[in-house]
Amino acid sequence: MSDGMKEKLDSIVFKTLEKMQNVKTTEALNEIRVSVLGKKGELKEVMKGMKDVAPEDRPKVGQMVNEARDRIESKLAEMRQRLDQEKMERQMEGEKIDVTLPARKADIGHRHPNTIALEEMERIFIGMGYEVVEGPEIEWDEYNFTKLNIPPNHPAKDEQDTFYINKDIVLRTQTSPVQARRMEQGKLPIRMISPGRVFRADEVDATHSPSFHQVEGLVVDKNITFADLKGTLEQFAREIFGPDTKTKFRPHHFPFTEPSAEMDVSCFKCGGKGCRFCKGEGWIEILGCGMVHPHVLEMCGIDPEEYTGFAFGVGLERIALLKYEIDDMRLLYENDIRFLKQF
Amino acid sequence: MNTSLSWIKMYVPDLDCSAQEYCDAMTLSGTKVEGFTRLDRDLEKIVVGKIISLEKHPDSDHLVICQVDIGEKNVQIVTGAPNAVVGMLTPVVLPGGRVAGGHDGTLTEGGIKIHAGKLRGVDSDGMMCSIEELGSSREFYPEAPENGIYAFAENSGVKPGDDAVHALGLDDVNIEYEITSNRVDCYSVIGIAREAAATFDKKFVLPEVTPTGNSEDVNDYIQVEVEAPELCPRYTARVVKNIKLAPSPVWMQRRLAANGIRPINNVVDITNYVMEEYGQPMHAYDLDTISGHKIIVKRAQDGEKFTTLDGNEYTLDHTILTINDAEKAVGLAGIMGGENSMITDQVHTMLFEAACFDGTNIRLSSRKIGHQTDASRKFDKGLDPNNAMEAMNRACQLIEEFSAGEVVGGAIDIYPVKREESRVLFEPDKINSLLGTALSAKQMLDYLAKVELRYDEKTNEIVAPTFRQDIHRCCDIAEEVARFFGYNNIPTTLPRGEATTGKLSFKNRVEAKARDVAEYCGFSQGMCYSFESPKVFDRLLLPQDDVHRRAIQISNPLGEDFSVMRTTSVNGMLVSLSTNYNRRNKNVRLYELGNIYIPKSLPLTELPDERMQFTLGMYGEGDFYDMKGVAEEFLGQIGMHDRLEYDAEAGKPFLHPGRQANIIYDGKIIGFLGEVHPLVTRSYGIGERTYLAVLDFPEILPFATFDRKYHGIARFPAVSRDLSMVVPKNIQAADLEKVIRQGGGAILEELSLFDIYEGEQVKDGYKSMAYSLVFRSRERTLEEADINTAMNRILKGLSDMGIELRQ
User: Fold this and answer.
1) Does B565 reach chain A within 8 Å, measured CB to CB?
2) Nearest to A131 among B503, B518, B557 (CB)
3) Is residue A165 within 8 angstroms of chain B, CB to CB?
4) Do B434 and A226 touch (CB under 8 A)?
5) Less Cβ around it within 10 Å: N or C end of chain B?
6) Coil, strand or helix at B234
């Protein structure tokens, strides 16, 4: 009897597995499951025949039925997974997109090129231990000139085309007065940069603006040398214009430094061979610098026999115009978004 | 300052370098060269030719055919020059050569190439040149004909085949320097030549000035008194009689021409020459116009009128120094001589003046009368008084050499306080420690000696000649050492010593956050000028007594449009938006971080309050609430969200009266926002609704913080309730929310508006508002009763305000 049952079960299993093998949809798979394992399924029918089985055989037959069910269910699970996968693949196939269609971007605003250049300079100098210090844009004549070794009636006062509010108060022509204010506080050593807006009576054109920005630096400590000044500015030049940048120092004159120098950097466009950008020179003038004049230190209450220092000043717009190849300074103050969006 | 290279070589005869090498080396040793121009840059293959025969052109009335001897051979040249004659020596450009420009004086970039060719059928192998074609003019070559080819003088010593460019002195280079204000001595050819000799380590040869003068005594001709010695440290004078005006010798004319100075006659040329050579301006008076044989140097009378030799009349005052005779002013000291005493063609005896005037006074005087001259530009640097007599004697030497007159013996020299050499202690160790070098004392002294800075062994001092007015301290000596050692030979090191902390100020950090938030929200950064026109106040509809009209005025502005320091950032923003609108840019969002300037008193007696403003402006997509959102996003990022309020009574005339608010934090106004008044947008030419927000940094900074604390994540479930209400229109959301929050108490976690509506389904004078409320406790799971108690309190509060629940 149990042999007959076994045959019957084997045949159900065999038939069912074969049917499942060719099934294409989960619905069809479900139908098979119901027809075999359901309440009225074939396996149930077989179970009904149990009453005709000898009681001693029943456990064995029961086991056979369970085995048959397990085989079918495991196949079912396998098929279900395969069909799910096929279905997902078909769906994804239909969901194929054109990846070259335009991106949908968040409308993020843009930073002014001056600020980008300033942030870069701040990053470089903060990394070297410099503090960023600000000061008033409307300044005492005394701080803007006298304390920087430019006494009344000094020709340099004319050269700077100063805007006056009255005889004692000016629109600062440089951010160096911030340095004088910081030195007067007497906290030494000093490593600082003072970025900010400055003013000179120049008519607006492609290379001039009555208002522009400077970043001036100051270091005062024991044993500060001209060699330190050179090393610091060389490092700055390489950071901002690229690691291959070369520097050249030329003697110059500024009232508040002695010795004074101007620094040129090798043209970052042509590498120094000479091009239209550097007007064939191979070098571009970047900044003025020098050793802080002992008289300036004295006026700020610092003993020049004990302390020395260096100072430098860079035009922020000059760096921005050069670095981003902007050909007209007026663009910086028009605030046309078509310009700003390029940064 | 300009010099020709050939003039420098007069004093540095061994100088042997190209113009480029010269310029590079001079710049590196401290005499900065701005640029140089080769006078012969477009001249090529130009020789002296001699016309040996001349015949009429068969087919032309104005052309002639010349046979020209160019040295090794004769060539045939057809010319239209009306002055061509047999025997003439003239510059000839040969085929394949170049000239600088046309005969009318127009220059051609790169020159004009000359080819052999035919003129009306006759062969012509080159061209005879006018001075204009050689790139110069009759201004510098007065002997050249007005119309025609240049003819060398018979006694000029040139012969056919010679290099004509050289013969004309056009094989020269004009060099332009940028002289810094500390190096007054370099405003002279000698001064620059001294630097050149030191730079190239060559011998420096000063002109040898020989004694001059006849047996007469200058004191018999003139007496000089200086009444204002504070403005005239030195006055020297000499007299020249029997003057014979004539052209100066060709070499001097050429030298002046190469320096860009027009030759006039021997006397004028000599004064110009000496002014360039020594940097000492000189003036010549016609002695016969000087009354009383007297010169008095004194301050002008207030209101005195004076006419200078160029015919301009000036009104003077007591700050201006004049040169006078016994009766009248005859010159503005250091600026220009008078019409009444100028040298004319009839001059017989002249008074030569070489003085030293106070530089500052000359600068202020020439600025005051609005007249700068070559002389005043030299004087205003502050000249070395010890140079005056040397220059005077040099001029007299040239007068005698050129037979331009008879120099009277002796010289007037009023020089009460002699300027002495300056002395600076020589401290080689200090110099090395300032420069970061390890030079020996000997090396340093060698460098210093090159520029005549002498070492006094007895006192261990460096002695600086008086022409070096910039040597006062050790650092000045260090610069001289550094220049000749070479700045680029100094090593490069980084500062050692105590470490310092690099940092941004707190204000800068808040500014950086403002930039970040603005940009995330789509705003781009603009920058505006700090000064604007006082008319902007009217444009912004500010009443006459508005405090913003109290603006600081610039006393010397670039014009009315830039004449007051801004007291509000609104105009700058609107101008920028307007620029964008005019250029058809859509959906523009801009922000600016910049100061406004609020005077504490007017006129200014102390520095004003400079207030950083964070200004946002936009048109296009977005409305009031978008702008409000950006402001709140920023304030949230700097830790300011829990005490924020808005007051619609902001009173800004340039904003829409029903759409503006002050932003208030902890009871303080920290800024405002709103829609721009339609009249204002119209006047700025912006055709769309425009929104602004301005946040005042000084008010914000005391509240701002970057401290953050973690409050935990809620562990108990939340319960939501919606409230849909009909609210009288005049009740503001803030008041209603306050009541809901009070009623909700500590368990009301979140309150958010999800619908607001006015219109058909709502009765007149009311609006419909719907809020979603979220209740949650941090300690336990809320029960129905907790929610009901809270809701009942809320409903009671609302109904007290006249608010009904929507059915």
Assistant:
1) yes
2) B503
3) yes
4) yes
5) C
6) strand
Q: Could you give the angle at which helices B19-28 and B189-200 cross, rounded to 10 degrees?
A: 90
Token pair recorded at residue B663: 């932003």
Bond before B603 cis per omega within 30 degrees: yes
Residues of chain A in contact with residue B495, where contact means CB-CB under 8 angstroms, are 191, 219, 221, 224, 228, 232
User: CA geometry: angle at B633 spanning B736 and B688, to 5°?
Assistant: 85
In the stretch 114-153 of chain A, residues with CB closer than 8 A to chain B read: 114-115, 122, 125-134, 136-140, 153
Report the distance separating Cα B611 and Cα B609, nearest Å.
Answer: 6
Question: Is the CATH code 2.40.50.140 the one for domain B44-167?
Answer: yes
**Range(s) of chain A covered by CATH 3.30.930.10:** 113-340
Partner B contacted by A171 (CB < 8 A): yes
Tell me, yes or no, if A226 comes closer than 8 A to chain B by beta carbon. Answer: yes
Cα–chain center distance at A168: 44
Which pLDDT tens digit goes with each residue over B600-656? 998 999 999 999 999 999 999 999 999 999 999 999 999 998 899 999 999 999 999
Does position B163 have pLDDT exceeding 60, yes or no? Answer: yes
Question: Does B713 reach chain A within 8 Å, measured CB to CB?
Answer: no
> How many CB atoms lie under 10 A from the CB of residue B574?
25
Q: Which residues of chain A are within 8 Å of residue B554 when distances are taken between CB atoms?
A: 163-165, 171
Contact B483 A251 (CB under 8 A): yes
Q: Which of A129, A132, A340 sits opposite B508 (nearest CB)?
A: A132
- Please state which CATH number belongs to domain B423-489: 3.30.56.10
Q: Kindly determine whether residue A335 and residue B527, on different chains, have CB atoms separated by under 8 Å.
A: yes
Interface test with B, best of A138, A167, A169, A293 (most B CBs within 10 A): A138
Q: Tell me the per-residue pLDDT of B361-406, one tens digit each, with 9 for 90 and over.
A: 999 999 999 999 999 999 998 899 999 999 999 999 999 999 999 9
Q: What CATH class does B218-414 carry?
A: alpha beta
Say which residue the tokens 């005051």 belong to.
B368
Q: For B506-700, which CATH class? A: alpha beta
Identical fold for domains B423-489 and B719-805, yes or no, is no
Domain spans, chain B: 2-36+178-200, 44-167, 218-414, 423-489, 506-700, 719-805
Nearest alpha-carbon partner for B103 in B130, B140, B76, B66: B130
**A113-340 is classed CATH 3.30.930.10:** yes
Closest CA to B496 of A129, A312, A249, A127: A129
B2-36+178-200 CATH choice from 2.60.120, 3.30.300, 3.30.56, 3.30.720: 3.30.56
Compare CB distances from B490 to A166, A221, A227 and report the shortest one's residue.
A227
Kind and range of the H or E run holding B454? strand B454-456
Closest Cα of chain A to B382: distance in Å?
A: 10
Amino acid at B352: F
Model pLDDT for residues B464-485, shown as the tens digit of each residue: 999 999 999 999 999 999 999 9
Q: pTM above the 0.80 mark?
A: yes
Which CATH code for domain B719-805? 3.30.70.380
Burial of B107 (0-12, 13-18, 19+ CB in 10 A): middle
Strand order from edge to edge, sheet including B609-619: B524-525, B589-598, B609-619, B690-696, B668-676, B655-665, B644-647
Rounded to an integer, what distance in angstroms lies between the CA atom of residue B8 and that of residue B281? 19
Nearest-angstrom CA–CA distance, B537 and B553 = 14
Residues 6+ positions from A275 with CB-CB distance below 8 Å:
A267, A269
Interchain contact B493–A (C-beta under 8 A): yes
Q: Which of B488, B501, B604 sits opposite A129 (nearest CB)?
A: B501
Give the CA distances from residue A25 to residues A29, A71, A87, B322, in Å, rounded to whole numbers and listed in that order: 6, 20, 9, 115
Residues 252-291 in A contacting B (C-alpha not used; CB under 8 Å): 252-253, 258-261, 291
